[in-house]
Target: 3-ketoacyl-(Acyl-carrier-protein) reductase
Amino acid sequence: MSGFEGLSGKTVLLTGAAGGIGSAIAHGFAHAGARLGLVDFDAGRGNALRDALRKAGATAHFAQADVSTFAACERAHAELTSELGGIDILVNNVGISPKTNGKALRVWEMPPAEWDGVVAVNLNSAFYMARLCAPHMVQQRGGRIVNMSSVAGKAYCDIVAAHYAATKSALLGLTRHWAAELGEFDVTVNGLAPGRISTPLLKSVPTEINDAVARVTALRRLGTPEEVADACLFFASDQARFVTGQVLDVAGGWLMT
Ligand SMILES: NC(=O)c1ccc[n+]([C@@H]2O[C@H](COP(=O)([O-])OP(=O)(O)OC[C@H]3O[C@@H](n4cnc5c(N)ncnc54)[C@H](O)[C@@H]3O)[C@@H](O)[C@H]2O)c1
Model:
């Protein structure tokens, strides 16, 4: 058991499930007895994660989808709810942070198509999935939404480009707004702001940059996906039942605001 209560038997829809943080969140929920609906556009890693979760005794289904369009989110949601029933916990985890030769492009260099792609994946998908999952939560008068922001959405960080920072900041606004809209239905909405976490996402920049971040992080190291997963499970659990509209840094004391 995870130590977090109220997760056993709950249904979870998790985007970007096959990535570093997503996989840790999936395993964390599975360990706590929740039933998983996994969404990712990487079918190979998504199916492998589903199989690993099932092998560990969990209920898990995978829907392959590019979450940047509403139609694809709608298909994935329909596929997963037909297997699992309505969604109790939505984790908007998917996120991309494109770089060119390891560098964040500046405003005068940024191709509009790259900007649009980041907005679609990091921000629009969160709205699409919340739009699809919230009616069930409102109807059953209960639910949880966790949005994956970043410390780069709260403070200036030269490693990422403006599209990433802008979408992660926008998720903070969504978190507060949805918390206010959904509170009367006992649905909580919170956000996570990870610092530098060891996942495949970090490989887009040279190792020296990640080493430099570790040096200026209070705890002098990068985080692990499991450390982000623990905070996500907390927000989804009964222990956090009176916590809503909040964003928790899981950053080891990097970019403290
Ligand atoms: N790793 C970090 O240091 C860090 C720090 C702060 C915030 N975050 C955030 O945490 C979240 C997870 O990051 P991660 O490090 O696990 O990244 P990751 O690259 O390991 O995983 C991202 C996953 O999203 C999937 N994906 C990408 N585009 C998609 C699309 N259009 N449709 C469906 N799936 C898609 C990928 O296939 C991948 O499995 C992201 O929102 C990221 O911004 C990460």
Notes: The first helix runs from residue 20 to 31. The chain has a mean pLDDT of 97. The CA atoms of residues 234 and 240 lie 6 Å apart.
